[in-house]
UniProtKB/TrEMBL annotation:
Sorted UniProt keywords: Amino-acid biosynthesis, Aromatic amino acid biosynthesis, Cytoplasm, Lyase, Multifunctional enzyme, Phenylalanine biosynthesis
Residue ranges constituting the ACT domain according to the UniProt record: 278-355
Entry protein name: Bifunctional chorismate mutase/prephenate dehydratase
PANTHER family, A to Z: PREPHENATE DEHYDRATASE P PROTEIN (PTHR21022), PREPHENATE DEHYDRATASE-RELATED (PTHR21022:SF19)
UniProt-listed SMART domains: CM_2
One term of GO molecular function: prephenate dehydratase activity
Protein's cellular compartments: Cytoplasm
Amino acid sequence: MKEKQTLAKLRQEIDAVDDRILELLNERAKLVMQVGAVKTENRSDFHVPSREREIYERLAAANPGPFPAEAVRGVFREIISASLALEKPLKVAFLGPNATFSHLAAMQHFGLSASLSPERSIPAVFEAVEKGEAYYGVVPVENTTEGMISHTLDMFMESELKINAEVLLEVSHFLLSRTGRFEDIKKVYSHPQPLAQCRKWLAENLPNVPLVDVASTTLAAQIVAEDYTAAAIASEYASSIYNLKIVKARIEDQVNNFTRFLVVGRKMADRSGDDKTSLMFSVRDEPGILHRMLEPFAKRGINLSKIESRPLKKKAWEYIFYLDLSGHISDPAVGEAVQDLSTCCQFVKVLGSYPRARQ
Ligand SMILES: C=C(O[C@@H]1C=C(C(=O)O)C=C[C@H]1O)C(=O)O
């Protein structure tokens, strides 16, 4: 009896707090709508990622607990996502179909109130943004086990879209099937990337079972939903959508398997104070060229976090380099270094400056 009374009293107090939270959420939504009205008058962009970043950072630092620090971001992401949708839902294209890791990355970045639309391929995501059908696009660009996804990098040769943000997602692969029984598996379906990321586990645990490449992990889950003798490697989320059982969780060879996604848009993102810049440039294959290329950055103490080279398909022995560095293109040192770089290159293209992702 005593317990019942205590619980009832505490729940009453929780209800009162929830009422206050709701009142504050509405007060906040009205302010966001006023901001929206000012922006409409001035024709400025409603979505401002640098401001959102500032909000997350300020609240993370101000949180006294015990509400968990990681949850603060998730809660506010949904508040901001829903506030933005009051004005108009933010349209975001991603590499589909639904339930792919790009879908999870888009949900993680834009929240559940954004209007997310699946596209068939990486070029189709770029096209949707270029044509204005979507405001942003989300595509994978590299994985900690398998390296760069060259298809995405190659898109920047032709496209004028800019990188507006990066999203880091911990990718965990699940072996899924209808029966959930190991001994029923006669074939394993997945996208080539997850198959490669689970290569060792598959060789040890299913050595004689054929592996079949398909266009997405979602397609693999769909096939397996109809075939009791097959298994798919897909996300945990796919298991709930396609009603599949988990044969084995987390079968990736490398723990801490992260995939990095890029958010592309038509404009350059504003400076947030902790940014990265991505560049692409081409040079002729000649002695000392790498040294000359890197000097403008070393001289100014600019940290380079990544350098990748790819052969330029149209011309033999010429290379395209992709470079990620710390700082925003509007920082004087970064601007000057890029200017210097352009004197020793055939061409330089700034792919975007964007807030560094937090893990
Ligand atoms: C309200 C604004 O517009 C949008 C909504 C935000 C919010 O809900 O806090 C933050 C940034 C913008 O994406 C703003 O720019 O301040």
